[in-house]
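A common beginner's mistake is to predict each chain separately and then try to dock the pieces by hand. The better habit, illustrated here, is to supply every component at once so that their relative placement is modeled jointly.
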Amino acid sequence: MTSTACIVPSPLEMAMEHLIDVFGQYSQKDQMKQTLNKQQLRKLMDEQLTTLMQHHNNQKAIDNVFKDLDFDGDGLVAFEEFLSLVAGLTKSCNDRLLIKEHKRLTSQTKQ
Amino acid sequence: MTSTACIVPSPLEMAMEHLIDVFGQYSQKDQMKQTLNKQQLRKLMDEQLTTLMQHHNNQKAIDNVFKDLDFDGDGLVAFEEFLSLVAGLTKSCNDRLLIKEHKRLTSQTKQ
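With all components supplied together, the output reads:
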């Protein structure tokens, strides 16, 4: 019995796999082009970013996100444009965590 | 017994959490600034990108990555600079998957 070395992906590799799988799940493929139209982006955000969408769940917000993401103006969002959405959201989440932690530490030093 | 609604993060939210956690694990915090120096970036890449690093495991490659990432030239990699590394790597993985699938489909139609 040949032992197949089971390579466990690291958390970073898992994150990259999730990003590829999620985009693949909602996008359409045409030859080598893989894109999201506005309805597909809306569905992705509704289903994959539920917490965020509770606070920003209006069509105008989605229109603005779509316009910002569609760098080349072809009416479609490509993978790298989707990744810039994820990077922006992740950065703002991280910034909020840093502020929270900074406030916690400063209030501790005052006690 | 109060039932705490257990919110299961979506795959995309998990990916975002992994990115924040991984950067937090290897970076240092100074007040509100969270950064990686070159040794920390090397450690992160060695431990979190093992598959990739098997093919690019030389100091010169790391130096080039660090130089490319350090947009503001402060000798440190900030979170958004790290996210651009992840975006670039994820895009090239996705491109390779698209090419593989395109070849598979074209060879099927020829049979």
